[in-house]
Amino acid sequence: MKSAPTTQVPGVYHRRVGDIIVTAISDGFLDGNLDVLRNITEDEARQILTAHFRPARRTAVNAFLIWSAGRLALVETGCGTYMQPSSGKILTNLKALGVDPADIDVVMLTHMHPDHSAGLTDMATGLPHYPNAELVMHENEPKHWFDDAAMAKGTDREKKLFFQAGREQVLPYKDRWRLFQKGEVFPGVTAMPFHGHTPGHAGYLVASGQDQLLIWGDIVHVPEVQTARPEVCMAFDTDTKAAEATRRRVFDMVATDRLLVTGMHLHFPGFTHLVPRGSGYQLIPAAWEQQI
Asked: What residues make up the domain containing 78?
């Protein structure tokens, strides 16, 4: 009798955007409680999740390769070994894809939270995982996370996971930082400031020919809840009012322009559309494409 499989296939999926290829890479997932949601009761949030057959807050963690003009970029680096053992799978999935981290030219961060930047550097050795890559991020990110006064105002968890971890991860790349305010940061990729979740939170619009894809970063963390109720924020938003305003602005833009979007916490592989539904919105996942 043949044995049944015991492991999943690699978390890799390709999507064409004109002449550019975007590859979703799964870093795994994080499990959490509903008490971190703001502007909604836990019972209300649980009802929404249950209605979508998701009775728990299980958060996907995604990253994206961008193959453009003969160069290779990685958007986000995942959790590394800083967080739950169900995460930190990016290097494994890159290997399965046949991508050597040394061949990545640019690493772009949407922001410096640990589920995005903690995979930059080997925690045990302090050595960068992407030895030849520039590190690209909004100028407000290091300005905020290297601010000792701002760190002093944080909780012990925030000091450790946001400020200290962020500094540890990006410092080995210090001589290769490239900071932006907005504009093109990679061939066919334009950075868009989406501040609120963090002071330098940004998205990346990938465009080639008539095709576009918006990588919107952390516009949502609990997709079913925050699309239905855009006012719902997270305890780890640095500015909840700005985060809500940005989310509403991005939702309106994406729905009006019928943009294809993806993000770090949309269910893998994460490519989807957004349409208005009642007082909120609904995600319509894009169909799986057999050909690149």
From this structure: 16-285
